[in-house]
Amino acid sequence: MSVDFAVLGAGLMGRLVALALARAGHSVDLYDRGGPEGEASAAHVAAAMLAPLAESVISEPLVVRLGRVSLARWPELLRTLPEQVFFQQNGTLILWHPQDRDQAALFSARLRRLDPALAGQGGWSELRGREIDRLEPALSQRFSRGLYLPGEGQLDNRGVLIALRHALESTAARLHWNTDMAPERARADWIIDCRGLGAKPEWRALRGVRGEVVRVCSKDVELTRPIRLLHPRYPIYIAPKPGGVYVIGATELETEDLSPASVRSALELLSALYSVHPAFGEARILEMSAQCRPALPDNLPEIRWNGRRLIQVNGLYRHGFLIAPAMLDAALALIRRVLGHGAEAWESWREEQAWPSLYRLDEAA
């Protein structure tokens, strides 16, 4: 049976949900305040690293579990898109300078405490200089110690947004760009709100956490996997993209300010990048971007239903690409439930799900 859906917000989650519903034969209208490139979304700025183990030392267990499921789901999702998207699983390399060895000890201790069964069994391993050189020849003799987290991955965030748009264009979904649609104005049987911070008028607990990234292009340094550089004040990540492009980021600021990046942030990010390899000094700065990620008070994602026709998916914080496939599966499970049964036995159904804490029935929404 075809049901009429309005999906609000065409960032990563909105596009995934709209595509899944359209392919299932439903009537779908997708609305976004920005254009088809997704430039107004947090996903457009993200580094799109798929690193649940690296995140485990600073994130809640729920995020790590969602990330592990999503890492396995991403290749399957990407195969359904009309064009190839850059995706790799070369692992994550954790590095530090000698003066920051205390940060490395802290990071290692957290890994052992959180997942001791993985140490030395394919989950993560400690590296010496020559082992680092074999993994990343471009960093030869620059770091004497490191940690390697195999199997973790990354993808091209903007490539995913474009491929999802093209996939949507091949369905019967109606795409409404540069259209800011609120739930109360949407004309549909069901409304799926994936607007991130745009949903704040209806979800007051949402807040924005500002992130700033630099994109550079280097012909002199070739890295094959994401690098995380430990530092007491500004631990950074360097995520390689196709064509010699690197995304560098670190900042998390409790503000919804969307003005350009500050000089301080630029200096810290670029200085840390230069410290990884001086050849980055000749890289060309392609852009500096800032965006606000939507977060809830506990920094955990949530899927909220108002008991009627509104479902909200939000609070993905800085974990959008890391957890999106698992969040998609969870959202679709709720949609199937309410279409078939409404509020009947809601609580027992929620407890039967893989991640019951994701779901919330909020009749005041």
What does this structure look like?
- With 365 residues, the protein is of the alpha/beta class.
- It is built from nine helices and 18 strands.
- The chain folds into two domains: 4-51 and 157-204 and 298-361, FAD/NAD(P)-binding domain; 92-150 and 208-295, D-Amino Acid Oxidase, subunit A, domain 2 (D-Amino Acid Oxidase, Chain A, domain 2, 2-Layer Sandwich).
- It has helices at 12-23, 52-55, 61-79, 101-114, 129-135, 157-169, 263-276, 320-341, 346-352, and strands at 4-8, 27-31, 49-50, 87-88, 92-96, 125-128, 145-149, 153-155, 174-176, 190-193, 207-217, 227-230, 236-241, 245-249, 284-295, 302-305, 310-314, 359-361.
- It has an eight-stranded mixed sheet with strand order 6-7-5-12-13-14-11-15. A seven-stranded mixed sheet has the order 9-2-1-10-17-16-18, covered by helices on one side. Strands 3-8-4 form a three-stranded antiparallel sheet.
- α3 packs across α8.
- The chain starts with a strand and ends with a strand.
Number of domains: 2
Please tally the helical runs, counting DSSP H or I stretches of 4 or more residues. 9
Highest CATH level, the class of the largest domain: Alpha Beta
Adjacency order of strands in the biggest sheet: 6-7-5-12-13-14-11-15
Number of strands: 18
Can you lay out the helices and strands and say which pair or pack?
Elements: E1 4-8, H1 12-23, E2 27-31, E3 49-50, H2 52-55, H3 61-79, E4 87-88, E5 92-96, H4 101-114, E6 125-128, H5 129-135, E7 145-149, E8 153-155, H6 157-169, E9 174-176, E10 190-193, E11 207-217, E12 227-230, E13 236-241, E14 245-249, H7 263-276, E15 284-295, E16 302-305, E17 310-314, H8 320-341, H9 346-352, E18 359-361
Parallel strand pairs: 1-2, 1-10, 2-9, 5-12, 10-17, 16-18
Antiparallel strand pairs: 3-8, 4-8, 5-7, 6-7, 11-14, 11-15, 12-13, 13-14, 16-17
